[in-house]
Amino acid sequence: MSINLSNAMLSPTYRGKVRDVYDLGDKLVLVSSDRLSAFDVVFNDTIPGKGKILNTISAHWFSLLKNIPNHFISTSPQDMPPQFSSKEFLERSILVRKTKRIDFECVVRAFLMGSAYKEYTANQTVAGERLPSKLPKGAKLPHPLFTPAVKNDTGHDENISFALMQSSIPQSADTLRDLSLKIFSFAANKLKEKGILLLDTKFEFGILDEKILLIDEVFTPDSSRFVEIEEYEKAMRDGGEIPTMDKQIIRDYVESIGWNKIAPAPRLPKEIIEKTVLQYKKIEKIILGIKN
Predict the structure, then answer these.
(1) Element (H or E) spanning 206, and its range?
(2) Which residue, of 3, 15, 119, 288, has the fewest CB within 10 Å?
(3) How do residues 220-232 score in pLDDT, each as one tens digit?
């Protein structure tokens, strides 16, 4: 269910592709909607219950990442401002510290998927790093790669080299890369214990009191690609598509019908929406089973 803001008598300070942001001064309330964004375009169709799943998954990862400075405060009803006391807000809302966002997406890739595979097929590189020849789609990379992107609130994010990121923010680029690789490694190991491969993910960071904090969402099926190890091995052996538990279902469908990735987005068949919901719920259950 999408939040009806008019009924809630609240208007967000900022509306992102998926999240609505309410500015409380030194804190924010982030509300995860059921809106769907793919290839940086917001769809008219929604994914029922998606916002609750994203919120629950992110809150759980933040609880596991206590040693990583982050913006998480609480999802508990007693900690929320009274205007967010209704059930529809509480199940989708997270109270966080307000930071100055660093306008780079910090992407880590351990497998050759998505835009990384497209770059590889064109240049045999990923984020400018040359890789071995003849790697198939979905191949495990020699080591996880940090592949940043310039973040755009509207339109497509732009993949860049780490060298360009260093020239843009020399004071923090190395720290962001090292933090991203460290967090990725932690989650990849935890997920592998549950029979899941973390193919890639993206992070966002912000600055508060001159410190870098992990912000936004963490290891959700909107921001990451997951696949069961057995399914991955079968796909690589048989040459089939890798059946990931994330937004890749949507990406694959809209690419299969030849969409040009420019708004407006195409309508989604009911079966694609239902399949996406099932996969989001499946990975949610697995992630919530991860303990410290």
Answers:
(1) strand 196-208
(2) 288
(3) 999 999 999 999 9
